[in-house]
């Protein structure tokens, strides 16, 4: 992604996409968790952009009520984030161990901050689910780094 061209579009979308805090998890997030790992990561960034932090937290397999302190720390990490956009890259084949399937999802991410600046990141998320079909995909870890700005 090229942030120089992408940021004006993010600015426009930020003005149109805010969701009231405390909203119920979106149908998209529920669908994504049962659809596939790429859809989970896309729904995660959509939830962050709409300030639907409960849904974003749930896509990590967490419930806000179970650890309110951790949830508040999670939310505070996005205080200055106005909008995000993600491009899904390569999704690995599942590896299975102890009844759990794990995949890696490559991503490129751009964000728009409240001061009008933006950042770009790339890296991977790891997601897993039980192979017996009793649970949905959820994020278990992320390893992203800032992409240096190009002149």
Write the layout of secondary structure elements.
Elements: H1 3-17, H2 27-35, H3 37-49, H4 53-58, H5 68-76, E1 81-91, E2 95-97, E3 100-113, E4 118-130, E5 138-146
Antiparallel strand pairs: 1-3, 2-3, 3-4, 4-5
Helix pairs in contact: 2-3
CATH topology: Nuclear Transport Factor 2, Chain: A
Distance between the termini: 15 Å
Model regions low in confidence, pLDDT < 50 over at least 5 residues: 2-23
Task: Classify the beta-strand content into a percent band.
Answer: 25-35%
Structural class: alpha+beta
CATH architect. name: Roll
CATH class category: Alpha Beta
Description:
This protein is α+β, with helices and mostly antiparallel strands. It has a single domain, classed as Nuclear Transport Factor 2, Chain: A. Helix content is 34%, strand content 33%. It is built from five helices and five strands. Strands 1, 2, 3, 4 and 5 form a five-stranded antiparallel β-sheet that branches. Helix 2 (27-35) runs antiparallel to helix 3 (37-49). The longest helix has 15 residues, at 3-17. It is globular.
């Amino acid at each position: 992604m090229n942030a120089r061209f992408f940021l004006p579009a993010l600015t426009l979308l930020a003005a149109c996409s805010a969701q009231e805090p405390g909203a119920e998890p979106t149908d998209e997030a529920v669908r994504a968790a049962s659809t596939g790992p790429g859809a989970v990561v896309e729904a995660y960034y959509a939830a962050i952009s709409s300030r639907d932090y409960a849904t974003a937290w749930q896509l990590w397999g967490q419930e806000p009520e179970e650890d309110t302190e951790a949830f508040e720390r999670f939310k505070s990490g996005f205080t200055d984030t106005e909008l995000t956009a993600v491009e899904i890259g390569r999704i690995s084949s599942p590896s299975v161990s102890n009844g759990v399937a794990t995949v890696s999802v490559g991503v490129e991410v751009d964000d728009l901050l409240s001061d009008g600046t933006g950042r770009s990141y790339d890296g991977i998320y790891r997601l897993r689910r039980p192979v017996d079909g009793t649970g949905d995909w959820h994020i278990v870890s992320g390893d992203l780094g800032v992409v240096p700005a190009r002149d």
